[in-house]
Amino acid sequence: MSTRPCYNLDPSDMPTKWYNVVADMPNPPQPPLNPGTGEPIGPEALAPLFPMALIEQEVSQERWIDIPQEVLDIYAMWRPTPLYRAHRLENALGTPAKIFYKYEGVSPAGSHKPNTAVPQVFYNKQAGIKKIATETGAGQWGSALSYACNMFGIEAQVFMVKVSYHQKPYRRSMINCWGATVVPSPSDITQAGRDVLEKDPDSNGSLGIAISEAVEMAASDENTNYALGSVLSHVLLHQSIIGQEAEKQMEMAGEYPDVVIGCCGGGSNFAGISNKFVKNKIDGRDTKIVAVEPASCPTLTKGIFSYDFGDTARMTPLLAAHTLGHDFVPPGIHAGGLRYHSVASQTSQLLLDNIIEAAAYRQLDCFEAAVTFCRAEGIIPAPESSHAIKHAIVEALQAKEEGKEKTILFNLSGHGHFDMAAYDSYFAGELIDDAMDEAGVASALKAISELPKPVGYTGRSGGN
Length: 464
Ligand SMILES: Cc1ncc(COP(=O)(O)O)c(C=O)c1O
What we know:
With 464 residues, the protein is an alpha/beta fold.
């Protein structure tokens, strides 16, 4: 058995194609619907916001899609990313399990988000777009998009949820470093923002409001487009590079995972690490694949599978996915990137078809796992990633209890260097343990009861 802690791929082994799981799913994701007509939307509905190359990827059935050379050249600045064997964590837990993690925190923005920001900006540049507008919650996506826009010389406008704008000032500084403009949302530079401010001048903002502002800016200027950092199929496609690399690195280690784990907000890093293993599972290889979410925003474990809007302001097409209702506002946990009421259609369909599983954990348990991890392995994880760590530890301790060998792979989607205030609160004992607002979910679900129903509509708790 090898005791190497790190498995690095040669740059020439970096994948040159993205893998599209839709080509292999027994039941492909159901089409987005026009909320007015209830009919599937055509590509023209997305054209005011996205370049045609991304719209084609969004609906593509092709299994493999070439990564453009210009994107590979930028990926090569930090990819292939390392895969580590967590020997020290295994020792700390006293487990017979072998734990591996793929580390996406080595990207310039510190997470997996640039894997899609770079191609999204590339295709916009190719289409002659001069500016991209986007929203950001905790700032990971806004900083990744700013980085990518800087690489291709495109202007970026980030609407950052006001509460995070003040809580995470250094994410804002990063956005400025890369030459982008960031404003707290709600802002007075869009009608959507002005409307909110008129009613509530002290509004803290929300992802829903920030999306409305970015979409309005993109829709009202033909030189400006919109970009989204998760949920959509083209975003998940771009993240597939993570799992393809991880599979090769596991081969280098002479291992194949029994369990593959990713934290799940909109679903992009989870799909990134797992979709290649999903393919292998569909092809006959037995693997447990687990998406991990916060107990305070339990979309996959407690949501219903239904059509719903992707945003609070009801501006997006209807998407078939597990949802807590677009009006649901999750508690203000520090894993800001996991505070989303819904999830990617692809991920939901895989759960519905029992190809993947879901688990949910509370904030304090995840911080405890993050600290155990950083004291063993040295890396300080993003609060989002701590959810994957928590489940990896649960699997490892189960292996210990059962005296069984098990190979575990999880995605460490980002570092937590700009989340230290959250760690300070945890150490000071001030971190409030979160709880799902049952009444909030019930009323948010009532608000969607009239929307069209997809095949497989659950109308009840949807998780495994
Ligand atoms: C470090 C990190 N991990 C995970 C996520 C969750 O997003 P997704 O589910 O799209 O991977 C985010 C979102 O911002 C993030 O910043």
